[in-house]
Amino acid sequence: MAMTAEAAYWFLPAVIPFSIYVAWRDLSTMKIPNKANMILLGIYAVFGLFAFPFDLYLWQWLHIPIVFAVGLLLWMGRLMGAGDVKFLVAASPFFVVTSWDDGYFLIVLYTSSLLAGVIVFYSFKFLPVLHAPVSGWQSLREGRRFPKGPMLAVILLAYLILAAVYG
């Protein structure tokens, strides 16, 4: 993991409440607002100047067009919703990838988060004792659609927390 603990400490206070909001909003309405993604980009724009050396800060902005291109293909293939793609684009500058190992780590983090998210989501959807408190959520009434926003928020948080702990 290439991100330093100091950089993660800069981002965490702003990203934690934001990630909770995105997860809740996607579960309850199946939408991630554009304003939320702009706020996440703003968090990086402001705190990134303090967290990273200036050259790395600028380099991280190049993640945006790459993630957008890949996300657009996923959206066109109906593998991911547009809100999820926009969230990935907004979160992409936070992930420092300097080697294949970092990329592999992110794939493992995504896969494990998605697997855990599927198990938890469908437990809430099909177990009456869990379903009752959140029965008004739109995501539980959608047929085959699955909200990926909570898992993407968990990935961002987990990455920053792991960077803060293991730097």
Automatic annotation (TrEMBL):
Single annotated GO MF: aspartic-type endopeptidase activity
Domain spans labelled Prepilin type IV endopeptidase peptidase: 16-119
GO cellular component, one term: membrane
Pfam families assigned to the protein according to its UniProt record, in alphabetical order: Peptidase_A24 (PF01478)
Keywords: Membrane, Transmembrane, Transmembrane helix
Chain ranges passing through the membrane: 7-24, 36-52, 83-100, 106-128, 149-166
Name of the molecule in the record: Prepilin peptidase CpaA
Organism the protein comes from: Yoonia sediminilitoris
Organism placement in taxonomy: Bacteria, Pseudomonadati, Pseudomonadota, Alphaproteobacteria, Rhodobacterales
